[in-house]
Write a structure and sequence with these properties.
alpha+beta, about 25% strand
């Protein structure tokens, strides 16, 4: 029944729900993985823009996420110092892997690693063991757009007020998903939208630079849907994996019930 629990997060192929899964899923079992992902993000942000969040919007956003996940201040401080070189630390690099799951569903895997060979072989073997396969560079990525994405509970602010706030800050689209608003912006406007929400004290359920599908693969078979979700989950469990995005769009007939 675990997969049925996350089916709503993947219902219409919108990768927004994949981010919510991680943001909400800070259960103890996943907390170590979550802290690891956040630490690497903080280290990379401090390395590229300096250790002062007042002058480094990317670092400021990473720290806000870490605090929202109840990450200890010591961990945050250590991650910053590794990035600025004040503490010895491994050198992380960011990589992207593209592949296909069951039914030809496109999958993008974001990795932050200190060992490219290890992460590549882990992603490849996890794909192979779970009904997927890696594809060449560029073969899947064109089906996704790299965008800034913010998920905000609709109870926090009216749609009109949110629209005024984020459009002014450079957002390009707002979607009303009932319980949540999804705000989309160009990567270049991410920091300014993030800052506008922060200044207005509007807390996000999730905020990230995400790969959002622009081409969806319709799936109307429950078995195929299960295989894709199982593959996504297995990849997401890998230590070096930061995020997994897919472009599956489930038809009503493929919606998984509680028996899965």
């Amino acid at each position: 029944s675990h997969l049925s629990g996350i089916i709503s997060l993947h219902m219409s192929g919108h990768s927004k729900w994949a981010t919510i899964k991680r943001a909400k899923g800070a259960a103890d079992a996943k907390r170590g993985k979550l802290f690891s992902v956040l630490s690497k993000d903080i280290t990379l942000a401090a390395r590229s823009g300096g250790g002062d969040p007042g002058f480094n919007p990317r670092l400021r956003t990473c720290i806000a996420k870490a605090k929202a996940a109840n990450m200890p201040a010591d961990n945050i401080d250590r991650a910053i110092k590794k990035g600025t070189g004040e503490l010895p630390g491994v050198v992380y690099e960011e990589n992207l892997y593209e592949g296909y799951g069951a039914g030809g569903v496109g999958i993008i895997v974001e990795v932050t690693t200190d060992n490219k060979n290890r992460s590549a072989s882990e992603v490849r073997s996890t794909m192979g063991k779970n009904g997927g396969n890696l594809a060449g560079v560029g073969s899947v990525a064109f089906q996704f757009d790299r965008r800034g994405q913010f998920i905000i509970e609709s109870a926090k602010i009216s749609e009109e007020a949110l629209m005024d706030l984020v459009l002014e800050a450079g957002a390009e689209d707002i979607k009303n998903d009932g319980d949540h608003f999804e705000v989309i912006c160009a990567i270049s406007e991410y920091d300014s939208v993030s800052q506008a929400l922060d200044t207005a004290n509007i807390e996000c359920v999730a905020s990230e630079l995400a790969y959002l599908a622009n081409v969806f693969v319709p799936v109307d078979d429950k078995d195929t849907a299960r295989k894709v979700l199982h593959l996504v989950e297995k990849i997401d469990e890998l230590e070096d994996v930061k995020a997994v995005h897919h472009n599956m769009e489930l038809s009503d007939s493929a919606l998984l019930d509680d028996e899965c």
